[in-house]
């Protein structure tokens, strides 16, 4: 699958894929729909692309005018791929790519806040809802007008009992479901 930046300053740039089959890159259709939903609110926003993979979502946000994106992934190959893609798109100056465990970070004291936290972990490992639950337990990572967005397979979905976050929308695109959460 060929990955590319759809719009903005890096429009048309091809993104390198992570070697092997450990990641599941977002399709152009889902990415375009996501950014159509967000619209102009992407400008000057801050992002955390939590299970970064290729970095396609955060790079798209930066290309469309986001002020900053933090990328995290537990493994070296995705982190190296993200750094390569940031350099290739000339967006590295507004980004940070960290090899880190998302769950440990979510449990720690926040060092900054985000408008958008994009959660797209490996499928069928209960990681998406664990990340939402950790974010719900430590909502200081989020700005007041923020969204957490989980990308998962529709079969993985379950309604979550949350205290600080509320699900407000879902969009299904074939085998991809986007679930949207906001602070209560």
Write a concise synopsis of the structure shown:
This protein is an alpha/beta fold and 184 residues long.
What would your notes on this structure say?
- The chain is an alpha/beta fold.
- It has one domain: Rossmann fold (3-Layer(aba) Sandwich).
- Helices cover 27% and strands 29% of the residues.
- The protein is built from five helices and nine strands, in the order ββαβαβαβαβαβββ.
- The protein is globular, with a radius of gyration of 15 Å.
- The mean pLDDT is 95.
Low-confidence stretches: none
Q: Briefly, what CATH class? A: Alpha Beta
> Looking at CATH, which topology would you report?
Rossmann fold
Helix content, binned percent? 25-40%
Computed structural class: alpha/beta
Q: Strand share of the residues?
A: 25-35%
Shape: globular
Mean pLDDT: 95
Order of helices and strands: EEHEHEHEHEHEEE
Radius of gyration: 15 Å
State the fourth-level CATH superfamily.
Vaccinia Virus protein VP39
CATH architecture: 3-Layer(aba) Sandwich
Q: Largest sheet at a glance?
A: 7 strands, mixed
Order of strands, main sheet, comes to: 5-4-3-6-7-9-8
* Total of helices: 5
Terminal CA distance reads 38 Å
Provide the domain count.
Answer: 1
What is the β-strand count?
9
